[in-house]
Amino acid sequence: xxxxxxxxxxxxxxxxxxxxxxxxxxxxxxxxxxxxxxxxxxxxxxxxxxxxxxxxxxxxxxxxxxxxxxxxxxxxxxxxxxx
Length: 83
What we know:
With 83 residues, this protein is mainly alpha-helical. It has five helices and no strands. Helix 3 (32-48) runs antiparallel to helix 4 (55-75).
């Protein structure tokens, strides 16, 4: 149970970091497409710094960043990308 709570909190923290206020303000400044692409690249770069990452994991991170940004933009709710 403690592990599930830890990973749930870690996932929520990651969503707030990548699709929270910064993403919302960036989307307001450059538009939703620019913000989605920019934060997908940013998310992939951060994931690339993890020990043991490779080109495939970075590509998957970029694709996942686009999907999660789209999920946020469609609903305007962080809970969807967190779930």
